[in-house]
Amino acid sequence: MEMNEYQQPLARHLFCLSCFSRRQTMRTTELRRTTARKCERTGEVLLMEHSHQAAGSYEKSNYVDTGRFWQALVVAVFMGLWSAAECLAFTVSPTALTFNAVQNGTNPLSQTLSVYKKRTSLATVTTSDSASWLTISPGTTSMTTQATLTVAVNISGLPAGTYNASITVKVGKATTTVPVAMTVSSPPSATTATLAWNSVTDPSLSGYNVKVGTASGLYSRTITVGNVTSYTVDSLTTGTTYYFAVTAYNSAGESSPSNEVSKSIY
Predict the structure, then answer these.
(1) What are the domain boundaries of the chain?
(2) Domain pair 91-185 / 191-264, same fold
């Protein structure tokens, strides 16, 4: 079939487009093959042998793929960060301790610290304190997820005042500090109240009782003072109001209370 003068340029143009399309398809296929070969060799040491025919010699060249190096480096850094996170992944509760005591009194009750760790790996716990009046035990123990520590204080010989110290808890290579505060108060003032009353003229009188209480008409303490007309009551606590009355007694029994008086101790 013959083509006219208008059809020939169009046919040549279509033929060029067809050739270009085939070339593009071949290039795409080759690019995919090259990429696949590179992916297969990723992270491996490539040994390339080159035969130089003109020089009549044989050379061997080693090429190291840096991808594997960076992969190993990332893994090492990740493991290091994981270990650091493991060391830091523990908490102590409570985060602070407070003790209150009275000078020359008994020691306050001991308190506990709880150490928690998320991971179940075995770890060593060591403890220390910063004051002679403060003690934490045990000094060394092991834990998986939890450990209990006991904190005690000793107020013997300490004057009234506020004391501050700290406890250090170490799990593996990580440490945390727990502040400890203790207040030693002065003992209550042992103040007194002096009472005086008129004597009873009955010859059968044996003596007097002094009644003491902290509520009007309710006496929790009775002091037998003998046949005297005055007496000083001691061991009274500051900040308290006391109520007093006096009774007379003989072999037949005890009289009703006298009029009541009170005194507030400041």
Answers:
(1) 91-185, 191-264
(2) yes
The DSSP-derived string for 137-201 is E-SEEEESSEEEEEEEE--TTPPSEEEEEEEEEEETTEEEEEEEEEEEEPPPP-EEEEEE-PPP-
Residue 101 token pair: 């005591």
Q: Which CATH superfamily is domain 91-185 in?
A: Immunoglobulins (2.60.40.10)
CATH architecture for the domain at 191-264: Sandwich (2.60)
d(CA 24, CA 18): 10
From residue 90, give the alpha-carbon distance in Å to each of 87, 94, 112, 227.
Answer: 8, 13, 16, 72
* pTM for the structure as a whole: 0.47
Extract the tokens encoding 69.
């190096």
CA distance 169 to 139: 9
Residue 255 makes CB contacts below 8 A (sequence gap 6+) with 200, 247, 248, 249
CB 147 within 8 A of CB 138: no
According to DSSP, the residues that pair with 233 across neighbouring strands are: 193
**Contact, 117 vs 89, CB < 8 A?**
yes
| Residues 77-104: tens digit of each pLDDT | 445 544 444 445 799 999 999 999 999 8
Q: Which pLDDT does position 13 carry in this prediction?
A: 46
Residue 244 DSSP SS3: strand
What does the pLDDT read at residue 29? 64
Phi and psi at residue 123, to the nearest 5°: -140, 150
Of 161 and 238, which is predicted with more confidence? 161
Apex 232 CA angle, 231 and 233, nearest 5: 115
Q: Which residues contact 259 (CB under 8 A, 6 or more apart)?
A: 245
